[in-house]
Recover the amino acids of this structure.
């Protein structure tokens, strides 16, 4: 079959809302100020770092503040050891600012315990919040990002949709299918590198592009709500910086697994046996 051309989008890196009430936090941003990771420091570390908080307040960004405080406070450095769940990749010095949602964490634990991910890096996509979580081959968080998804709500693709011209795909057929998929590096009809999620249904993960202003793809990614993140024909649109910095390097040359959580059925109907799954 001829690959379906990915949507013609431009890049955007959205800035998620910060966690409220953090007295001392550490964050990791991309070059265009997209929050990739961050977190809070425990009470003991806050007390130890108290003499240096005026330096933190003057720091240009949270990453600089973290370096300043850790250089002056060994206790704070110890407080940032990977005692979080899920565990933090040793390649990173921070943990995720946003807590991993319960259903994503449940799937992560199941994938690691059952070795369903086959010791490969994996993605968990929660369609209900329009956010993608990236894990390394040991199930440790590498990062997360908002994404754009299929316009229609649903967990299955229409049979034969991958063979149809895009202009013939009706709005209610534009779903992002749920399930377990193997990410396969490839190229779309325009030669752009992408990751196929479901080749037969022409569903892929690719950089967001926005050549149709009326679709407001960049604004949708930047908005604080996932309610307007449904716009594609089914493909998963990823901010360019996150795609190039994290997704592509992690999945290239590997057979990473992509878990797309369902939105119209219980998780255990797709991922079995899933410990603690609620019918």
């Amino acid at each position: 079959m001829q690959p379906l051309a990915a949507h013609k989008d431009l890049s955007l890196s959205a800035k998620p809302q910060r966690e409220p009430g953090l007295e001392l936090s550490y964050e990791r941003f991309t070059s265009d100020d997209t929050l990739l990771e961050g977190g809070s420091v425990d009470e003991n570390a806050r007390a130890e770092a108290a003499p240096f908080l005026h330096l933190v307040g003057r720091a240009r960004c949270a990453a600089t503040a973290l370096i300043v405080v850790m250089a002056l406070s060994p206790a704070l450095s110890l407080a940032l050891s990977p005692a979080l769940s899920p565990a933090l990749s040793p390649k990173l010095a921070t943990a995720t600012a946003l807590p991993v949602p319960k259903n994503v964490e449940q799937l992560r634990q199941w994938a690691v315990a059952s070795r369903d991910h086959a010791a490969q890096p994996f993605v968990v996509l929660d369609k209900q919040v329009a956010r993608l979580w990236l894990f390394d081959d040991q199930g440790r968080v590498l990062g997360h990002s908002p994404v754009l998804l299929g316009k229609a709500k649903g967990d299955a693709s229409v049979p034969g949709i991958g063979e149809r011209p895009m202009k013939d795909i009706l709005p209610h057929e534009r779903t992002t299918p749920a399930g377990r998929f193997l990410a396969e590096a490839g190229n779309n009809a325009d030669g752009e590198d992408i990751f196929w999620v479901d080749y037969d249904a022409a569903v892929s993960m690719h950089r967001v592009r926005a050549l149709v202003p009326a679709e407001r793809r960049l604004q949708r990614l930047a908005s604080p709500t996932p309610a307007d993140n449904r716009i594609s024909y089914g493909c998963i649109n990823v901010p360019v910086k996150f795609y190039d910095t994290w997704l592509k390097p992690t999945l290239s040359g590997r057979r990473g697994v992509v878990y797309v959580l369902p939105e119209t059925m219980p998780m255990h109907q797709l991922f079995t046996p899933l410990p603690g799954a609620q019918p």
